[in-house]
């Protein structure tokens, strides 16, 4: 093939690549329907945390999801059939405020398991270079690593729930006092809720924002707070929501109820702090008893033992 033919082939390849790049850039910069509609409906999804319009992704991860998505989904269905507990997972996802379905969470579990499987396989491959006869044990280790990765994602979800509930308990007294001040100043329950949600931010504020969005759709305030009490996993927050619902339905003074709820949470936090301090005090005695005390006894008696050896004929 002559030099002119090589130039023609390279020019054709470069032209085709440039045409593909330009066509892709044209598709990427084309305004999508979600981009045009989302600014006009942005307030409702943000307050209610309902599933918002999502812009279609044009990144390479979307192509990878299209290629490996069916395999991951079938693996997630298998994990769901083996483990079960979809109701518990759904409740924990709601308590952790994660915008995921149970199936998406199962896919994440499969991905965590695959990462652990890949790490165990790499270790087994390095180990097989020295001991080629350990193929069966390496396979068992890889399977155990996959199961451990799947269970680790479930444990991480439980930790996310606990972390968010700790943040809620830390924010609760302040939010309850703000609601009480707004109601005592003459605000209605919905107006006070709207003012506190707009002025604060955090885990409890997001839950109250969800309640506010439900109330704005026409649901009674008492029913919305009853639903919040049923969805939360914290007894203190459940009593708070039930107290507001009862106060709104029966006309009892709401400010006093909120002040009492805030005082109860502060007292519960004080008791929990005392219990944690008592447990830490016992743990602090472990190094003292098993490390410091034996060394002190050794320093006290060792000179006498040496002196006895020196004076004994």
Strand content: under 5%
The end-to-end span amounts to 105 Å
Helix content: over 70%
Quaternary structure type: single chain
Low-confidence segments: 45-64
**Estimated structural class:** mainly alpha
| Number of H- or I-type helical stretches | 12
Major β-sheet annotation: none
| Gross morphology | flat
Number of DSSP-assigned strands: 0
Query: Could you give the order of the helices and strands?
Result: HHHHHHHHHHHH
State Rg: 31 Å
Indicate the mean pLDDT.
78
Name its key features.
mainly alpha, single chain, 313 residues, 82% helix, flat
Descriptive account of the structure:
Keywords: Cell membrane, Membrane, Transmembrane, Transmembrane helix. It is found in: Cell membrane. It is a multi-pass membrane protein. The protein has 313 residues and is mainly α. The chain has a domain at 165-268. The protein contains twelve helices and no strands. It has helices at residues 3-28, 33-37, 43-48, 60-83, 86-95, 102-128, 135-184, 189-199, 203-216, 221-231, 235-250, 254-311. Helix 8 (189-199) crosses helix 9 (203-216). The radius of gyration is 31 Å and the shape is flat. Residues 45-64 have low confidence and may be disordered.
